[in-house]
């Protein structure tokens, strides 16, 4: 059974804190993605990675960075959390081949920045 | 710009049929996905269309017309567990995935 796990379901942080969101997949997928999801908006891509140590900016990378040191793990970092980063964060993975294959999503992390 | 349009919310009755539409304007086209997302949960894959026509999978079917930039998801014999948001997403010519905002489907007994 395919699985994508995220380190926390709920997280509350203070403005200015550095925040780490971890994502692990056990499907040996090459592609991994970080999205945020806000009411009334579609999923918005923050960063993605097609290989270890490789990263590409998505549509809204400002205020975020990522790390992919191992194939199965993709981390999202909020360097200095701000209230406008309060959101649901979803990690996903897919096999290689661009976006012609379905993405498998983790359960999401609901982050609140106060 | 790139855009995907879906109705924000729809209501249907248990046992009935509902059609959720999706129209898109993207720079090229390399496939269209439908995902289901229950409240507070992750999206899960429902269907993928790359050629025109209807793809049937049990109670769910998905239709695509590339010339019209249009797709729909058809849900038959609605069950209460079908209450969820349904997300339409299109892969453009650069193989980037563009997501719609989703349609919240409410099923009433």
Outline:
The complex is a heterodimer of chains A (114) and B (109). With 114 residues, chain A is mostly beta strands.
What layout of secondary structure does this protein have?
The complex is a heterodimer of chains A (114) and B (109).
Chain A: E1 4-6, E2 10-13, E3 19-25, E4 31-37, E5 44-49, E6 56-57, E7 64-70, E8 73-78, E9 87-94, E10 104-105, E11 109-113
Parallel strand pairs in A: 2-11
Antiparallel strand pairs in A: 1-3, 3-8, 4-5, 4-9, 5-6, 7-8, 9-10, 9-11
Chain B: E1 3-5, E2 9-13, E3 18-25, E4 32-37, E5 44-49, E6 53-57, E7 60-65, E8 70-75, E9 84-91, E10 97-99, E11 103-108
Parallel strand pairs in B: 2-11
Antiparallel strand pairs in B: 1-3, 3-8, 4-5, 4-9, 6-7, 7-8, 9-10, 9-11
List its traits.
heterodimer; A: 114 residues; 0% helix; globular; B: mainly beta; 11 strands
What does this molecule look like?
The complex is a heterodimer of chains A (114) and B (109). Helix content of chain A is 0%, strand content 50%. Chain A is mostly beta strands. In chain A, β7 and β8 form a beta hairpin. The model of chain A has no long low-confidence stretch (mean pLDDT 93). By secondary structure, chain B is an all-beta fold. The model of chain B has no long low-confidence stretch (mean pLDDT 95). Classes of the chains: A mainly beta (114), B mainly beta (109).
Q: Tell me the structural class of chain A.
A: mainly beta
Calculate the mean pLDDT score of chain A and round it.
93
3D shape of chain A:
globular
Strand content of chain A: over 45%
Helix/sheet category of chain B = mainly beta
Strand-and-helix sequence of chain B, N→C?
Answer: EEEEEEEEEEE
From the N-terminal CA to the C-terminal CA of chain A, the straight-line distance is 37 Å
Number of helices of chain B: 0
Tally of DSSP β-strands of chain A:
11
Arithmetic mean pLDDT of chain B: 95
Low-confidence stretches of chain B: none
The proportion of strand residues of chain B reads: over 45%
Radius of gyration of chain A: 13 Å
Helix content of chain A: under 10%
User: Total strand count of chain B, please?
Assistant: 11
Radius of gyration of chain B: 13 Å
Low-confidence stretches of chain A: none
Measure the end-to-end span of chain B: 40 Å
């Amino acid at each position: 059974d395919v699985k994508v796990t995220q380190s926390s379901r709920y997280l509350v942080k203070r403005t200015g804190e550095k925040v780490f969101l971890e994502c692990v997949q056990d499907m040996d997928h090459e592609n991994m993605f970080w999205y945020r999801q806000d009411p009334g908006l579609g999923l918005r891509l923050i960063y993605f990675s097609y290989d270890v140590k490789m990263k590409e900016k998505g549509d809204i990378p400002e205020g975020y960075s990522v790390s992919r040191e191992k194939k199965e793990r993709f981390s999202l970092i909020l360097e200095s959390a701000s209230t406008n980063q309060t959101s649901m964060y979803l990690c996903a993975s897919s096999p290689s081949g661009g976006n012609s294959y379905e993405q498998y999503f983790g359960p999401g992390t609901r982050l609140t920045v106060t | 710009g790139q855009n995907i349009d879906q109705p924000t919310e729809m209501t249907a009755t248990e046992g009935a049929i509902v059609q959720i539409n999706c129209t898109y304007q993207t720079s090229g086209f390399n496939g269209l996905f439908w995902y289901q997302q229950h409240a507070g949960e992750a999206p899960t894959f429902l269907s993928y269309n790359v050629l025109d026509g209807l793809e049937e999978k049990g109670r769910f079917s998905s239709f695509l017309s590339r010339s019209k930039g249009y797709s729909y998801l058809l849900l038959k014999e609605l069950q209460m567990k079908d209450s969820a948001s349904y997300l339409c997403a299109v892969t453009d010519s650069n193989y980037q995935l563009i997501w719609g905002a989703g349609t919240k489907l409410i099923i009433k007994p």
